[in-house]
Write a structure and sequence with these properties.
This protein is mostly beta strands. It contains 2 helices and 10 strands. The chain has a 4-stranded antiparallel beta sheet with strand order 3-10-8-5, with no helix packed on it. A 4-stranded antiparallel beta sheet has the order 7-6-4-9, with no helix packed on it. A two-stranded antiparallel sheet has the order 1-2. The longest helix has 14 residues. The radius of gyration is 27 Å and the shape is rod-shaped. The N terminus is likely disordered.
Length: about 160
């Protein structure tokens, strides 16, 4: 038989108070916590949750009205050096909202110039021009999610 105050089943195993576990889970949600632990004598109940898989990816920004037709048209071949994404993240064409973009089609760039920024894990990573030339095509929209090795810009 269990000592007074201890919660054990007849077979000696600890009984789980489902109501208490549910209350702890509700506290996690209500307070935006990822973990909570309660101790009562020899009994310890710990409730955890992992938020990473639940976090939605940001929605891609809608294309400007003038570019909607070109997205529907067949892809045209553009010669030049293709700069590809070195990581998974979100591409930004300017340093902050409301500021002119780093590059524009037809604009000359020098080796080392910032073409765009990819935000990955809250870190802003500048993508620089590997060589000088003229921007022939920008293949991503502002605030668009990008994949590793995805073409970003063509410089010729």
């Amino acid at each position: 038989m269990a000592e007074p105050g201890k919660t054990q089943a007849k077979d000696g195993a600890m009984r789980i108070d489902a109501k208490l576990v549910q209350e702890l889970a509700d506290l996690l949600t209500a307070n935006g916590l990822t973990e909570i632990q309660v101790e009562d004598g020899d009994r310890t109940i710990k409730v955890c949750r992992d938020l990473a898989p639940v976090t939605p990816a940001p929605a891609p920004a809608p294309a400007p009205a003038g570019k909607a037709k070109s997205a529907a048209a067949p892809a045209e071949e553009v010669s030049g050096e293709t700069v590809k994404s070195p990581m998974v993240g979100t591409a930004f064409l300017s340093s902050e909202p409301g500021v002119d973009p780093f590059i524009a089609v037809g604009k000359a760039v020098k080796a080392g110039d910032t073409l765009l920024i990819i935000e990955a894990m809250k870190v802003m990573n500048p993508i620089i021009a590997p060589a000088g030339g003229v921007v022939k095509k920008i293949m991503v929209a502002d605030a668009q999610p990008v994949e590793f090795d995805q073409p970003l810009v063509i410089i010729g």
